[in-house]
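Section 5.1 Outputs to date
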Amino acid sequence: MTQRVAIICGGRSSEHEISCISAGGVLSAIDRSKFEPVLIGISKSGKWFLLDDKTSLTIKNGVLPVVPETGNPVSLDASGFISADVNLKIDIVFPLLHGPYGEDGTIQGLLEMADIAYVGSGVLASAVAMDKSFAKPIFAAHGIKVAAGFVARASDWAKDKSAVQKQADQLGYPVFVKPARGGSSRGTTKVKSAAEFAAALEEAHTFDPKAMVEQEIRGKEIECAVLEIDGVAKASLVGQIKIDPKYDFYNFEAKYLDSATTIELPAAIDQKISDQIRVKAVDAFIALGCSGLARVDFFLTDNNEVIINELNTMPGFTATSVFPKMWGATGVEYTEVISHLLASALTRNNGVLGN
């Protein structure tokens, strides 16, 4: 007997389009002998619609997919997902939503209130991982080194620009300025001098009134994927992100639009360092109380110092995304990864009352 899986994509965040692409990947690879997918899209204005599972969710001629603003409405209450007065009888939700209103604990709380099992981390872990200003001190408290930096709120900037500017100057340039609760590098700027700081901070504040300013870490960008298999968090082989030199850093265009990024699997680094990163990835996953999956991003400096950048509780999930690629290199194929995630959604508790 198959289980009905609601694949939810789109959403109100700046990562709407990337969410759609992730959903397209899962739809193409889910084991239909075990699971029956039901595609639900959330438009940019926040409307929920039942979509045909043959909906195109790929990049075509450089154009990113979006959820339309019209269609068959979907609602969710204690009785489950409803469309056209019919209960969709969903067993598991795969919330392939990136960023605010999806990866930040909000939809997780809604699903817990509706008592529906879902893939990924619960309310608290999702919220903390989404807000880098809260995640960083937790990592540091568990012995995982983080980059030096500070929080720059829009209200503080409006009140005293010179004080915030001084903090950035004291860090020393270059610095990175990014939304505290953003993703896919949207709103992120590499600032090379004090003269560039104000514009970068104001750009970050268009995405989030809370921004992070961090000292540049020079070194390799290393990533590790964590997946719960039979209740145990396991780390994949680690990979190194390689970016076309025309890009200053791993930004949105380099990630998604220009074929400028590749991942070297396994990363050509010392095995002891690789093993250390895998341990730290699982430590970070446990420290935040994560469930199901996470992609953990690190910097490896020239003197082999491992510094965590961030943890993503719902990373990009197409067949060519970094997370599935790392597991493929580790011996767990894309379809199998999806099956593990759906199985784990039914066997663990997200909140104090369980699923």
